[in-house]
Every structure is written in structure tokens, then in C-alpha cells.
Amino acid sequence: MHLSRDVVLLITYSGDFFTIDRVAEALSKKGVQPFRLDTDKFPLEVQLTAHFDKSKSYHTIECNNRSISTEQVQAVWMRRIWEPQLSQELAPKFREACIKESQATLDGFWDSLKETTWVDNLERIDYASNKLRQLRIASEVGFVIPQTLITNKAQAAREFFQQVNGKMVSKLLTALSRSMEANSSFFLYTSIVKEEDLQDAESLRYCPMVFQEQIPKQQELRVVYVNGNVFVGALNADMYAAAKVDWRKPGVEIGAWQHHQLPDQVVRRLKAFMGKFGLLFGALDFIVTPSGEYVFLEINPVGEWGMLEKDLDLPIASAIAEALLQRMNN
């Protein structure tokens, strides 16, 4: 089945629900046809063909008895890119080659859509994903940030521990493999560091880590920015155990999300921050301290927001659809 001229491509994976469905529904209500592409189903269940000749080039993609060409795609929502799910029967030496070729083919598909509206552009997502760059730019626009050390030197980590009076957390600069079990690494999520953890910290020489002062919390905020609109959910820090420092960790009881109004000054800084990255979308984490100070932690350019729409009835999906259409119609 071929779709009409006005198609919005939704890039995701087969395990994605709710957020993807809400955006697809919002687009349909606005008279535009969404086309969902589950990247983990390519190449086994999705067919992609690229055509090049002297006069023009275009790609076609087929899945679930629907097909589109790149000429029909007016906008792209970049939700998730996942690794191909290949048959276990495939020999490992072929498996690696198939994954590389599949990813290179998808890269060519994204490239063929480079003149299309994206929320957000892949290069900008990659640029904004660097946590060190985030901290630098956050500081430049006036956000308060935690004291931070990134090092592969054990002694530097121990000295920083003393500098922050033993109130220290650790985190990774990048996400580990998507398939990694939640509890397979002490440092997978933001974790409290104790002095004994640093006694045998020589393994840092193999892999640098991020260490930050532990900020006292009154509330934790998930702030979702969509093309100038700001949606906020707040968690009271006393609703979950102090030892479980990261509310995103599976199994942490977080209590109820609450509405929260950001001060105008924080909103102005947020818009300046997003402007520096050229992003239309971002999910940001802040801490509100007991004294009422707003401390920037990080931004995820493709972060989660479904819980805010579900629990607080915030119209985030509609705002994303509107951002796609607004750019499309300009």
C-alpha cells in the first residue's frame, strides 16, 4: 500500500510504545500520515532499496505491507535507532558484517532525507549528547552546574572526594550497550561513591569516569523542551530511598509526578541552551535544592517523556507533531 505525499517518518524500534503511538495519533489528527520504521527489524522484516541514476536518486522502504519513497517524506521524528535483530543461526563472522552493512544502508537512507525537516537532526543529536559539552554550554548560559571531575587518574578521584567532603556520585559519559542488564554494573546509573569504592580505583586507567558533588535535593525535575514549549514534571526527593540516587534506575519507587512551574530566568536560560545546540527537542534533568536553587544535570536529546504525558496529561506528543508540521509547512 502506497501512502500520500504528506508522510512523516517515525524512526524507532519494535519495543517502543505509548510515546510513538501518541505522536502518530497526533499527526493523524492533523491530517498527516505517519509511517513507523522499526530500525531493529531491518533487514529481516523491512526492505530498503536505493535507486541512483543520472537524473535523480530516491529510496523506497517497505514494511507491514506499506511502502514509501523518500520523495513522499515531508518530516522525520528521530525517536530511536536500534541495532538489527538478526537470526541466532547466523554465524558470528557473518553477523558482524550484516550489522555493519545494514547500518551503512540506513545511514544512506537518513542522508537521502537530509533536506527534510527533522526533530531532531542526527548530527545535532550527536553533538548535544556529549556530557562535557553539555556542562560547558550550561555554564555559559548561566545554569548552575555541580562541581565535576572527569578523570582516568585514581588519585585525582580520591582528592576530589575529599574536596566535596565525601558527598560524591559517579556516572558514565556514554550509555553502555542497550542490551546490558540493569544491575550488571555498579556505575551504570548515577551512583553514590563511598570511600571504599575508591581504594581500588586503579581500573580508572582503562576507562575515565565522571565524578560530581552530590547536590542536596528537594525535588528532581524532568524538563521537556519542544520547539519553545516547556513541560515539567517534578518528583519529591524524599519519595524514594536516598541510597537509590537515580530515579531512572529500574525498580526505584519514585512516587507521583507533580506539575511544576519553572522561574522565568530558568526558562530563558533553557531556551538559550537549546538554541546553542540547535535542538527542537530535549529532555533535561535538574535538581531543585532545599534553598530553591535550580541545578542543571544533563540533557538527553532523545529522552523519555511518556510518564509526564501519562501522569500529568501534558500535551507533549501534540507539541512534537506541531513542531514537525510547522517546519514542514514553512
From TrEMBL:
GO terms for cellular component: cytoplasm. Gene3D superfamilies: ATP-grasp fold, B domain. It comes from Nostoc punctiforme (strain ATCC 29133 / PCC 73102). It comes from the Bacteria. One of its GO terms (molecular function) is ribosomal S6-glutamic acid ligase activity. Residues 8-125 form the MvdD-like pre-ATP grasp domain. GO terms for biological process: SOS response. This is RimK domain protein ATP-grasp. InterPro entries: ATP_grasp_MvdC (IPR026446), MvdD-like_ATPgrasp (IPR048936).
